[in-house]
Amino acid sequence: MNLKEAQVKDIVRKVLLQMEAGNKEEQKLSGVFTDMNDAIGASIKAQKVMQQLSMDSREKIISNIRKKTLENAELFARMGVEETGMGNVGHKILKHQLLAEKTPGTEDISTVAWSGDRGLTLVEMGPFGVIGAITPCTNPSETILCNSIGMIAGGNTVVFNPHPAAIGVSNLAVHMVNEASREAGGPDNIAVSIVKPTLASGDIMMKHQNIPLIVATGGPGVVTTVLSSGKRGIGAGAGNPPVLVDETADIKKAAMDIVNGCTFDNNLPCIAEKEVVAVGKIMDELLHYLIEYGCYVISKEEQEKLTAVVLKDNRLNRKCVGKDARTILSMIGIEAPENIRCIIFEGEKEHPLIAEELMMPILGIVRAKDIDDAIEKSVWLEHGNRHSAHMHSKNVDNLTRFGKAVDTAIFVKNAPSYAALGFGGEGFCTFTIASRTGEGLTSARTFTKQRRCVMADSLCIR
């Protein structure tokens, strides 16, 4: 698929018009309702069918979701950038390809068995039922498709309350999940959403008696709300991932990896490098290579201007989030060369552009006296989110010390941050990283509950 900007704009317009025409059955996107209670009711009916499907049948649905995601990766990427104004189309295509190929399906669901003189006991992974999910505008269709694969694999259906800033692309993803299910012989409404998601619709979803599990992917506010709901909550919240570079690192490779990770999708991923802490003796060399790989160094005066724009009235300026470095620099009157990918400067850890999670390609660099000082500063910058941290070093002891001290769900060593999601590294993909509630990188097994099935004094034939 090779879509032009005008085509994408036309698709966005048509999708939004279809959703507005939700009372006309022939126009409504599949799984998209005007009322949250209606959406939940449809999801409950679909889950009764889903729970009876064999694992093979679930896997056929998931395989079709993967196929359709790959076929429509460019459409989702371009539509996401067009609707939200954030991110990079090429990188979003890669993210859709990654989730299609590396999100675990039914193979993640396993059974544990004990057999002995007193019989046979099985521990099965069963569905919660209907799951409520809140999704962000930073990775809208990616999160919906990734969550859908894992939740469906576990035998669940899902009710989404997407971010209003990405409702078009989010609901198109919901529609595609249902289309994939029908084509594979599965039920409709295995994923549902509403035309106009609001805080009120999210509140209905979280309080509904037939939704036992809430999964929130977003900022600290929404995660706190979910964890206060009185229900089981999985919270994938904020992070401010530091990347530590010590004197034993391959400095040239570290610089390349840091720039590649920080600029991926214009720094929207929550795992991306948000600031650098470097041991003083390699600082100059690191700066040299960062500049070589497309970084623009801003002066003290320019830092002040940038802070005023990015943190307007001491609040994160959403107009800057997910924008590329050249666009952000133009906001303070700098016309940067075309090769510029990232904005850098040296500062203290308390600098607002360093201490705050920005989700844009701006990297403050903090100088440390030695590895002890670097670890202390990096842990402070992570702010106890326990989300992600990265390090470039050839010293195993240093890597171990920092990993233990920062205690994050993700710890990437000697690679760009996105290696954590299986892109250039081993492991599966997810866009819901539950650091706050402890599940870490979620997958199908996360969305199941354990059931123990005991047959006493029988079925042991040893």
Indicate the topology:
Layout: H1 5-20, E1 32-33, H2 36-50, H3 55-71, H4 73-84, H5 89-102, E2 112-116, E3 119-127, E4 130-135, H6 140-153, E5 157-162, H7 167-183, E6 191-194, H8 199-207, E7 213-217, H9 220-227, E8 232-236, E9 242-245, H10 251-263, E10 275-279, H11 283-292, E11 295-297, H12 300-310, H13 325-330, E12 342-346, H14 352-355, E13 362-368, H15 371-382, E14 388-392, H16 396-406, E15 410-413, E16 433-434, E17 440-441, E18 448-456
Parallel strand pairs: 1-6, 4-5, 4-7, 5-6, 7-8, 9-10, 9-14, 10-13, 11-12, 12-13, 14-15
Antiparallel strand pairs: 2-3, 3-18, 16-17
Order of strands, widest sheet: 11-12-13-10-9-14-15
Rg over CA atoms, rounded to whole Å, is: 23 Å
**Tell me, what's the shape?**
globular
Largest sheet, if any? 7 strands, parallel
Mean pLDDT: 93
Helix content: 40-55%
Question: Approximately how much beta-strand content do the residues carry?
Answer: 15-25%
**SS-based structural class?**
alpha/beta
Task: Supply the number of helical segments.
Answer: 16
Q: State the end-to-end distance.
A: 58 Å
- Spans with pLDDT under 50 lasting ≥5 residues? 22-27
Total strands: the figure is: 18
